[in-house]
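Sequence, please.
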């Protein structure tokens, strides 16, 4: 079994299984939660002591101890709350990030046919919202169990204080659970609608961002605006309905527990005090505990209301993780040779053949230019080499081994891509560079930026490496973006560099400088340069020309 297969085999079955490395922190989190809930039971007891012992019986010597106990509990609750949040931050956000990374790696490890059943918007939802909801569901179920135990303990305290008041307070509990369950079913249906509309919206955004030139050229902007408004309107209505159902449930429970039941208990408690079946301090302490009891029930009800959408997300993540993994036993330890033999490819629903019987070889150390007019298949060929597309016929070999048997991670470790679409994020320069090699030191980043001829520019910035560059590096010029991308590539130090018309938007002088910079830093590397300019191709040792429907060179 390959390493990639083994990684995901461990995740099959229960998608909510907590790794062993988190179990110690999780036990501490549970312990702190119980301590926090336990401390909530002490203030009403202090209140009872104050009323019954100090006020009623006049034992003033207990005033200071009761006051000290109350202050101590308050400080203990504050400290425990801080510790609970600190431990929480070390578990659930990290767990969410790990699951996002696991799902992303799963995408990269699966074969193309397995992913073609999902739209880009659906893949995005599974990567982000579904993984977050899955971890949140586990968190809420854990909180449900802790709250349930706390409620049972509080119920025992209420029963001990006065069994008549306790039985009276429980009369309407079955009605609460019945109403919550009915409303939850309606709410879950609306959460499902939001999820489906969000997927459709994601597909819409991805399509329009990717094909914005076609939308602009075809004067389809108005139609796209209408579609955008339709999606937002549908999503807004579903979102409003889910919150209305939550509000209805909360309003009903608040009216029943906080107003109707509480007023009834005070009335009943007054009668019991008159008949000497209870005392005023016990009644007031009972109502304090009852308030905590009600708040815990409301929090429990809120958790149950949110479970529907989270459970569906967990099912989607589980279904993805249980997809059969392709068997890829071979690793690419070092790049030696790339061969394409009789490759044929055409896009789905497109009768035009992009590549037909295309063959090519590339050996280590070569600088190869792929040239040809737009639409001849240059970028398609790169995507086939990377495994982003799957050829209709023919075979691709890396180091003489079939591509289908090679672990994708080992290939991507040896390869660096500079594509037409800028892959920079709305993060700092440092964080963008670390995508090239996680854990790189500042000295290594400085060296890479110096070699990419952008370090002088970074030194002039007030925050230097901590400067946020905006989405897609919008705060940088075109040349600065390309130099930063080259610095990130040099930081990764790949053996094979693929340069897919990344300078096509630059003027001739800037393009010439960027290409010279790239090639001067890649003397001992293998380079594939996709270009439509003969001046750029001349910088490489040999060229391969693609033509529409041509048979390959």
């Amino acid at each position: 079994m390959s390493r990639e297969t083994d990684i995901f085999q461990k995740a099959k079955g229960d998608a909510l299984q907590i790794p062993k490395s988190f179990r110690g922190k999780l036990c501490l989190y549970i312990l702190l939660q119980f301590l926090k809930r336990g401390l909530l039971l002490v203030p009403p007891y202090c209140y009872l002591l104050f009323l019954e012992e100090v006020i009623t019986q006049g034992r003033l010597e207990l005033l200071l101890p009761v006051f000290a106990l109350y202050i101590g509990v308050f400080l203990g609750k504050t400290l425990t709350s801080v510790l609970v949040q600190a431990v929480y931050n070390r578990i659930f956000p990290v767990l969410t990030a790990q699951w996002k990374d696991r799902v992303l790696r799963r995408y990269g490890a699966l074969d193309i046919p397995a992913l073609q059943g999902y739209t880009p918007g659906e893949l995005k939802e599974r990567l982000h919202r579904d993984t977050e909801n899955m971890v949140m569901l586990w968190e809420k179920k854990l909180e449900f169990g802790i709250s349930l135990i706390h409620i049972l303990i509080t119920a025992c305290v209420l029963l001990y204080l006065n069994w008549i008041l306790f039985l009276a307070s429980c009369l309407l509990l079955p009605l609460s659970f019945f109403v919550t369950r009915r409303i939850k079913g309606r709410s879950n249906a609306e959460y499902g609608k939001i999820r489906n509309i969000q997927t459709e919206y994601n597909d819409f955004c991805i399509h329009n961002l990717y094909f914005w030139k076609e939308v602009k050229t075809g004067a389809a902007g108005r139609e796209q605006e209408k579609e955008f408004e339709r999606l937002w309107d549908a999503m807004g209505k579903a979102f409003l309905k889910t919150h209305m159902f939550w509000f209805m449930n909360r309003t009903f429970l608040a009216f029943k527990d906080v107003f109707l039941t509480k007023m009834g208990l005070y009335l009943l408690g007054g009668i019991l005090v008159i008949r000497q079946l209870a005392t005023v301090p016990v009644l007031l302490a009972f109502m304090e505990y009852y308030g905590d009891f009600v708040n815990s029930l409301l929090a429990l009800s809120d958790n149950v209301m949110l479970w529907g959408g989270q459970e569906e997300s967990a099912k989607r993540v589980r279904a993805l993780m249980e997809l059969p993994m392709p068997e890829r036993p071979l690793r690419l330890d070092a790049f030696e040779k790339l061969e394409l033999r009789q490759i044929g490819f055409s896009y789905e629903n497109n009768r035009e053949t992009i590549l037909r019987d295309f063959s090519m070889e590339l050996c280590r150390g070569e600088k190869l230019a792929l040239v040809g007019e737009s639409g001849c298949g240059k970028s398609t060929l790169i995507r086939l080499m990377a495994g982003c597309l799957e050829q209709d016929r023919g075979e691709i070999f890396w180091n003489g081994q079939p591509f289908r048997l090679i672990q994708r991670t080992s290939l991507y470790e040896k390869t660096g891509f500079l594509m037409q679409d800028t892959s920079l994020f709305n993060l700092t320069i440092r964080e963008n560079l670390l995508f090239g090699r996680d854990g790189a030191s500042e000295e290594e980043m400085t060296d890479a930026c110096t070699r990419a001829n952008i370090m002088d520019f970074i030194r002039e910035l007030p925050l230097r490496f901590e400067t946020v560059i905006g989405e897609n590096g919008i705060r940088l010029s075109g040349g600065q973006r390309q130099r930063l991308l080259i610095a990130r590539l040099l930081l990764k130090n790949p053996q094979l560099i693929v340069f897919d018309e990344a300078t096509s938007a630059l003027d001739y002088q800037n393009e010439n400088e960027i290409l010279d910079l790239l090639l001067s830093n890649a003397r001992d590397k293998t380079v594939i340069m996709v270009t439509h300019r003969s001046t750029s191709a001349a910088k490489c040792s040999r060229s391969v020309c693609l033509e529409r429907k041509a048979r390959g060179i």
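The first helix runs from residue 3 to 9.
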